[in-house]
Amino acid sequence: xxxxxxxxxxxxxxxxxxxxxxxxxxxxxxxxxxxxxxxxxxxxxxxxxxxxxxxxxxxxxxxxxxxxxxxxxxxxxxxxxxxxxxxxxxxxxxxxxxxxxxxxxxxxxxxxxxxxxxxxxxxxxxxxxxxxxxxxxxxxxxxxxxxxxxxxxxxxxxxxxxxxxxxxxxxxxxxxxxxxxxxxxxxxxxxxxxxxxxxxxxxxxxxxxxxxxxxxxxxxxxxxxxxxxxxxxxxxxxxxxxxxxxxxxxxxxxxxxxxxxxxxxxxxxxxxxxxxxxxxxxxxxxxxxxxxxxxxxxxxxxxxxxxxxxxxxxxxxxxxxxxxxxxxxxxxxxx
Length: 335
Prior knowledge:
By secondary structure, the protein is α/β, with parallel strands linked by helices. It has eight helices and 14 strands. The strands form three sheets. A six-stranded parallel beta sheet has the order 5-2-1-6-7-8, sandwiched between helices.
């Protein structure tokens, strides 16, 4: 596999640190590595593959003269809006972890286990990484969609504070000591907040509408009826989701198990009599998406309930992005 000149934007953040860890673990084929951050973190030293690198301040001319092949972004939507096109113009295939480019018609929204062929459609040189909650849902839903069809999806999520970054984790840790930082609108310790991102005029939050819109785009099917309620819970890392599905076709529950056991990137954990089902603590630090509590929904024709758990910083962000990069190299999209 070709060795690439790779830029990492947001190298010192929570997800950026996970990027570095996973790039090392997967032995990503890198010739030259260029870490970037904001002015505040510029000059910090980071260790990557046994070599020390000084983090550069991100500027409009940062990508010039580096012969970039690929750039991974995890520094927020406004940074991606400004700098992702500059990296693409400099010759890099950009894989962006922010929400900014996800619904752009010229930007593929990719989960490698689900829609890898869309990588070829990066018309403006940018590929978007989906929302963390959408990613883990798609890995489970796509094989079921292919087998049974999907009429309706109801998401109820239980999302860890790491999804809010370092400040979210700090608020939980300080809150259990009796000193909440006030990062969230209400205390997160010993509490659940049905409020992730800002509220929209339709009564949903941006996070909820991300799940609705991204499900349609990734599966390429606008006819599926999708709704979501997203909740922040006092868990440090690992998102959990209750997903209720209504299939187009009749099904045997045994076939649902068989489809999921064969699905790429999925591990079935379902033996409730032995208290075996996925938890956030179990998923922490792991690559797979875990599914359990698989059971028929008797309240509707062709309904099923699932409990889906994954590491939101790993599979929900850094790992999925790195997997897109590896798949792009494998497919020859990066020349």
